[in-house]
């Protein structure tokens, strides 16, 4: 995603006054401010404060969204997000392309998730929420499993169905026609944060699961080192598509409130450093009156630049990622709940 020259520019501009001013603004925006007449959608607590502000950096848009945080259960959410009927414009073909590349380009991730599922269930019916192009469903493909998925994009749903043989429902999760007590496993990888009403989603999942069934999900961790280092430039904020931002504490609260037994809630290292750094220097160049290429429009790198990127990852990003533990917890929460 990034060329060697991009990174050289970033190193050169770090000392520029405009860059330092931008970091001061980011730091100030994180300081909490009281929000009047707000109530936490997870725990009902009324001590809710402004957390940070950021635009849709993926598309390079200017509209700013406000995130607020519950001081009781630590849940963070977008205040006054786009209405559901407006959200379609924020899920562009560029976004679908990036998500599909992320899934298809890292088969080891899908294989690892499949291995986790098999630690708890060796056969049965499995439903993947937000299955995208079907990378995970394909990893689960086999005679031991009857596979199903839910996907909003018709293009991605067809691809998932063709690859995995799963029956994929196209549309809103709440409209999916699955019967109660019909699945042994429900999975949801970096999708739960996109839903408008997490309580209702968890209740739906609980109803779909058989007694003893498991819900295996991954979400970004708002209390992670990544957010503490990059603030509103952290790639995993993904505004306004990510409506809720979770911590282990808020996941634990939601699970208990919806009748789930906690099996495992852990954080994993996933800093999203390249993308977050890109957002920093894109914003810097905009402040200089330039128009940098957004991540949404970033093209495929040439082979020489891929080699340069690989060397930078090994020589800079990998050591920095290893040191991220000093700043806080891992960037993704992997949690398993049982009905």
Structural features:
single chain, 339 residues, alpha/beta, 7-stranded mixed sheet, 12 strands, globular, disordered N terminus
Q: Compute the gyration radius: what is it?
A: 20 Å
List the helices and strands in order: HHEEEEHHEHEHEEHEHEHEHHE
Name the helicity range.
Answer: 25-40%
Largest sheet descriptor: 7 strands, mixed
How are the strands of the biggest sheet laid out side by side?
7-6-5-8-9-12-11
Q: State the end-to-end CA separation.
A: 41 Å
Q: Tell me the number of helical segments per DSSP (H or I, 4 or more residues long).
A: 11
Beta-strand segment tally = 12
Q: Uncertain spans, ≥5 residues at pLDDT below 50?
A: 1-37, 301-309
Give the overall pLDDT as a whole number. Answer: 83
Structural class: alpha/beta
Instruction: Using the alpha-carbon principal axes, give the shape.
Output: globular
Q: Approximately how much beta-strand content do the residues carry?
A: 15-25%
Task: Write a structural description.
Helix 6 (154-164) links the parallel strand 6 (145-151) and strand 7 (167-170). With 339 residues, the protein is of the alpha/beta class. 38% of the residues lie in helices and 22% in strands. The strands form 2 sheets. A 7-stranded mixed beta sheet has the order 7-6-5-8-9-12-11, with helices on both faces. Strands 1-2-3-4-10 form a 5-stranded antiparallel beta sheet. Helix 1 packs across helix 10 (273-287).
